[in-house]
Amino acid sequence: MMTHARDASRGSLEDKLLACQREALLGKLTGLILHEYNNLMTPVIARAQDAVMRDDTAAMRKALDVTVRQTDHALRFTREVLGLAQGSDQPPQECRLVEMIETAVARSVRPYEKDGIELRVDVAPDLVVRARPLLLGQLLLNLLLNARAAMKNRRGVIAISARRVGDLVQIDVRDSGAGMDAGYIDEIINPFLAAPDASCCEGASLVGLGLHACRIIARQHGASIRAIRNEGAGCTFRVEWPASGGNGAGA
């Protein structure tokens, strides 16, 4: 009888633990959705406001096209995240990495050269990873936007490179921005430790939920992400992502 009661109590505690974990995941995913909507909609509003101020029909048409494209992506991304929250077991797909990067660049909307930034991509066309495409695309977009923010009011280079390392694909997003202090860099992907603090470094205020969103997406795919201080200017964010089993590019 005592054993039965103990087992029932343990089972109840395990159920409560699972419920708490699920609520925690829902909270994280809610924050992820809100943050990504901000990333996707901010350039839409900026382009639309510019077109209206100029009273330019052609610019308005382009702004409307961007609005449709970004809104459609936001809705599909939301469904994807909700699927994670509901425990969807949708399997990852084979994704050609260079195409995912091209899509992420397009989602940035504002051309990087307008900010004095040269964007370099060094990724073999046959390099393939396994991922849920919308989520991987959003991770890449966040890393690009973070790199651009780190280079605010600076001219320089954002370089994206990737290579096969065993069963993983190593993706590096390197910027030549303000950089961060070594003591701070290990904590920046934690959203509760990423509040702006001028005492940390010039780039600290540029870090926020976008990198935490990257961590959530990476973990959902069995991938990892970390920040590395460059020897020169800026930082490199390194993502190690499961490779497609049949892909040998860059090995």
> What's the CATH H-level homologous superfamily of the largest domain?
Histidine kinase-like ATPase, C-terminal domain
The side-by-side strand order for the widest beta sheet comes to 2-4-5-7-6
Number of strands: 7
Q: Can you give the mean pLDDT?
A: 74
CATH class type of the largest domain: Alpha Beta
Task: Kindly give the count of domains.
Answer: 2
For the largest beta-sheet, the strand count, sense and barrel status come to: 5 strands, mixed
Class derived from helix and strand content:
alpha+beta
CATH fold assignment of the largest domain: Heat Shock Protein 90
Please compute the radius of gyration using only Cα atoms.
Answer: 20 Å
Question: What series of H and E elements makes up the topology?
Answer: HHEHEEHEEHHEE
Low-confidence blocks of residues: 190-208
CATH architecture classification name of the largest domain: 2-Layer Sandwich
Shape: globular
Number of helices: 6
Strand content: 15-25%
Query: How many angstroms does the end-to-end distance come to?
Result: 60 Å
Helical percentage: 40-55%
